Amino acid sequence: MSKSNLLVFGATGAIGSYIIAAIVNAKDAFNRIAVFTSPNTLSTKSAEINTLREKGIEIITGDVTKKEDVVAAFKGIDTIVSALGRGVIAAQIDLLKWADESPQIKRFLPSEYGTDIEYGPASATEKPHQQKLKVRAALKETKDLKYAYVVTGPYADVPFFLAASKNPRGGAFDVREKKAVLLGDGKGRISLSACGDVGKFVVHTLTHWDQAKGRALKLNSFTATPEEILAEYEKQTGDKWTVDYTPLEQLKKFEAEAWEKGEPDATGLTLRRIWTEGGTLYDRRDNADIGAEDTVTLAEAVKESIRAQLSQ
Ligand SMILES: NC(=O)c1ccc[n+]([C@@H]2O[C@H](COP(=O)([O-])OP(=O)(O)OC[C@H]3O[C@@H](n4cnc5c(N)ncnc54)[C@H](OP(=O)(O)O)[C@@H]3O)[C@@H](O)[C@H]2O)c1
Hints:
Blueprint: E1 4-9, H1 16-25, E2 30-37, H2 39-44, H3 46-54, E3 58-61, H4 67-73, E4 79-82, H5 91-101, E5 107-109, H6 130-141, E6 146-147, E7 149-151, E8 172-174, E9 179-183, E10 190-192, H7 195-207, H8 209-212, E11 216-218, E12 222-224, H9 226-237, E13 242-246, H10 248-260, H11 266-276, H12 298-310
Parallel strand pairs: 1-2, 1-4, 2-3, 4-5, 5-6, 7-11, 9-13
Antiparallel strand pairs: 8-9, 10-12
Helix pairs in contact: 1-7, 5-6, 9-12, 10-11
């Protein structure tokens, strides 16, 4: 396959910024790299956009919901990588239809990069999965578009799993206070991905396309229990921490209340309940299939979390 021409959506977002950084790092593997963004982002994130321009990335502006803007951006593109945020997941349904109508576009990576939305039978009714499930269903209806889903589980980095929290009922590792709130009984294994590795996983998915296409790739950096993570913090900070727990049944109560009251962390609590129930664990991880075995370790992720929390 000749080198691809990429168009990335959501490149300045929380995970998109890691994905575009990894793509830039591997730019010799690609022919053209373009980013589609909004005029608003162009002015509010001008520093990030200028850095991308300096690195040779083409910046295309438009409205992601307007066919004429998007189809104009598709010119000369064969691969779409979407890292659009949760609020615009459903907008990808039009994007992929327009991509399917554009014969030059061959590959579409939708915005996944999280919990496996088809882990088991219960996944079909999980509230946070609904929009992404519709995107997967729409992708299966396309004629000529090939896809892959980059499934990574929770992110390890601050401000995600290995972070302090103003509302630690959903779990927290607070370096300044040396306090942890562990999910479940603290002994359940969770597979996490460092954000930098998520970027690498996307690059490896594109560069190992024969192995990746048509699959939900189950990728992660490392697997550990909350107790093992805490032990690593204690080792690296040289102190015993204060520990509390949010048992699974309590987590389910917090989750139900949050949805009932329309609280902003309802989605996060559902995902944390799924992780605590074992929803990130598999018989095998797929990293080797796409040559992405060299990943961040628990010790490295904790070291980075300590650095990030203390520099805040
Ligand atoms: N595994 C985990 O722990 C975890 C954590 C967080 C997110 N995720 C997943 O990662 C993916 C990306 O999420 P994110 O948090 O990185 O996204 P985000 O930062 O909220 O948004 C990413 C980009 O989407 C575009 N966007 C967002 N809202 C928009 C709107 N209303 N209209 C038009 N464009 C909009 C923007 O692109 P422009 O500025 O270029 O227009 C934005 O930079 C999602 O699938 C999410 O579920 C996973």
